[in-house]
Specification:
With about 120 residues, the protein is mainly α. It has helices at about 10-25, 35-55, 60-85, 90-115. Helix 1 runs antiparallel to helix 4 and helix 2 (about 35-55) runs antiparallel to helix 3.
């Protein structure tokens, strides 16, 4: 593979970022610098860290950045659940985002496992 942009996990993470930007655009103005901004940062962190790890050229650093990306997904899940509890997103939207985060987490876990095999 010549580029991280060809990876399914990076492309799925980019799709998640787009979904989060669309969903959070309906949040109340009071959340512009709060939950909206945090959800966008968490989502954007996922493909960004995948790309940064790829670009490091060092397998150990790559694995570390994949784990950071995975942590950002957990942050995003928490923020998504809070947004639902606050009434900013409906159950269906929350469940769709959680399915996306779960799928990407599984992809990251598989990649980390492959890269850390002895």
């Amino acid at each position: 593979m010549r580029s991280y942009r060809q990876m399914d996990v990076w492309n799925s993470a980019m799709d998640l970022v787009l979904q989060i930007y669309q969903v959070t655009s309906t949040f109340p103005p009071t959340e512009t610098y709060g939950l909206q901004a945090q959800m966008r940062r968490s989502a954007l962190s996922v493909p960004s860290n995948i790309a940064e790890g790829w670009g490091s050229g060092a397998q150990r650093r790559y694995v570390q950045m994949l784990k950071v990306a995975r942590g950002s997904l957990m942050e995003l899940e928490t923020q998504c659940i809070l947004a639902h509890r606050l009434g900013y997103i409906c159950q269906e939207v929350m469940e769709n985002i959680l399915k996306m985060t779960h799928r990407i987490t599984c992809m990251l876990n598989r990649l980390i496992k492959v890269l850390t095999r002895p």
